[in-house]
Design a protein that fits this description.
Distance between the termini: 12 Å
Structural class: mainly alpha
Protein name: SAM domain-containing protein
InterPro entries: SAM, SAM/pointed_sf
Pfam families: SAM_2
Shape: globular
Number of domains: 1
Organism: Rotaria socialis
Oligomer: single chain
Order of helices and strands: EEHHHHHH
CATH architecture: Orthogonal Bundle
């Protein structure tokens, strides 16, 4: 079992749960984003606004974040690194 650390503690991700990322609904993605350490609260709202589900999350690139209005480099880096880490657990 792997563990990813969030602002509000640690959420355990089983391999089964991680492999289901592609099936996450946009609200699940937004909840995951909201729990990432260092992420500003408005970022998860942007993901909801753009209806980013698990399938879209898996292919998200930095230029997509910029088009979504996420222009702060620190927020982009946290997101890209966290998504990469999540996908390496698959």
């Amino acid at each position: 079992m792997h563990s990813l650390h969030y602002n509000n503690g640690s959420i355990k991700l089983t391999r089964e749960r991680v492999t289901m990322v592609s099936r996450w609904e946009s609200n699940e993605v937004a909840r995951w984003i909201a729990g990432l350490a260092g992420i500003q609260p408005y970022i998860s709202e942007i993901f909801l606004k753009y209806n980013i589900n698990g399938s879209a999350l898996e292919t998200l690139l930095r230029h997509d974040l910029i088009r979504m209005g996420i222009t702060k480099l620190d927020q982009q880096l946290i997101l890209i690194q966290s998504i990469d880490l999540l996908l390496t657990l698959v």
